[in-house]
Amino acid sequence: MAQIDIAGLTKRFDSGAAAVDDLDLTVQDGEFLSLLGPSGCGKTTTLRCVAGLERPTSGEIHFDGEPMVSRGVFVPPEKRNMGMVFQSYALWPHMTTFGNVAYPLRRARLDGTAVAARVAEMLDVVGLAEYGGRLPSKLSGGQQQRVALARALVNRPQVVLYDEPLSNLDSLLRSQMRREVRRLHDTLGSTSIYVTHDRTEAMALSDRIAVMQAGVVQQIGTPREIYTCPANRFVADFIGFDNLVAAEVVASDRDGALVRLGGDGPLVRCATTSVRPPGSIVELAARAGAFRLAPGVPQPGLSFRARVSTVTYLGEDLEIQVQAGEVALLARIRDADVRAATQGTVPVSGDQVDLSIRPEELVEIGA
Ligand SMILES: Nc1ncnc2c1ncn2[C@@H]1O[C@H](COP(=O)(O)OP(=O)(O)O)[C@@H](O)[C@H]1O
Ligand SMILES: [Mg+2]
């Protein structure tokens, strides 16, 4: 339907640093792209510039080569052929479901029969065929959000912009609506930009994710690329690597490297893609779930002994904070595995545990 090209986009408000700082981004025709990042990193401002609700300080935005924002050009929101869905459903409280969904069509001066047909079709798509006559106040939060989705999509817009649309829903409804949002995108074939601070939501929905911090895109890639190959420390931390550790290369070959974690921590193997000379310092990242119990005499490079600092029971898993030399690590291990290995006694603070980590789950940041 439309490719979105954003070039050199900068937005400064009166005070302080740029909310969006020289951002370049291309969203492919039909793509679902998420802007992911912590609160205040400039996601909403970027989206509002694409929508035409905000005038950029500088930069250009094109839809399919047509300038929306360019030298001397500023196309107003209602002329951009897009739909928007907000966190606050922003429904008209005095209009029924039907009236809310019909609103964009009536503004576009479609005749009554066509409006009725399109609204009925759309309500069917979002599963609200029975609710056309209800006022928003008589609908649940999830149903209201479906009305907002239907209203945004009823015009078959070339571009759909979402700003944290599911954040107000409880977690069960959220995962259900996530599938709904993706299904609607696939059915209607629009190009979507989706703003969220929730990495699970971004992973589940997106073809690609752009991770933002301080108005700048830190990394852009498929969910798997972002999840497994973080470009820098910020992305690694934000995407859920619990352990970020500097390490010194002891030996390396094409299969990976033998490294020493921290100044005097354990020797472990990591799978890096690049051969580094011994003595090089690398930044590594591992999720807590990458660790396994390795009972027995520790074998340098394969397993190591550590002292337990704290143990937290999470139900299925135990979260174990350990100290290995100067390095503090967080490990998450199946409760059943721990109890099988220890004849039922769960380690406590001060105990020793023997751990291993799979080399492919110890990744080099920015590799
Ligand atoms: N209308 C505004 N006036 C002044 N500053 C703003 C305005 N809107 C956003 N900002 C600032 O711009 C930065 C980015 O905000 P925003 O785009 O809303 O971030 P996000 O959506 O990622 O949470 C923040 O520092 C915010 O305080
Ligand atoms: Mg926001």
UniProtKB/TrEMBL annotation:
Entry annotated with the keyword Translocase: yes
Domain of life: Bacteria
Keywords: ATP-binding, Cell membrane, Membrane, Nucleotide-binding, Translocase, Transport
InterPro entries linked: AAA+_ATPase (IPR003593), ABC_transporter-like_ATP-bd (IPR003439), ABC_transporter-like_CS (IPR017871), ABC_transpr_MalK/UgpC-like (IPR047641), Mo/tungstate-bd_C_term_dom (IPR008995), P-loop_NTPase (IPR027417), Transp-assoc_OB_typ2 (IPR013611)
Residue span(s) of domain ABC transporter: 4-239
SMART domains: AAA
UniProt protein name: ABC transporter ATP-binding protein
GO molecular function: ATP binding
Positions in coiled-coil regions: none
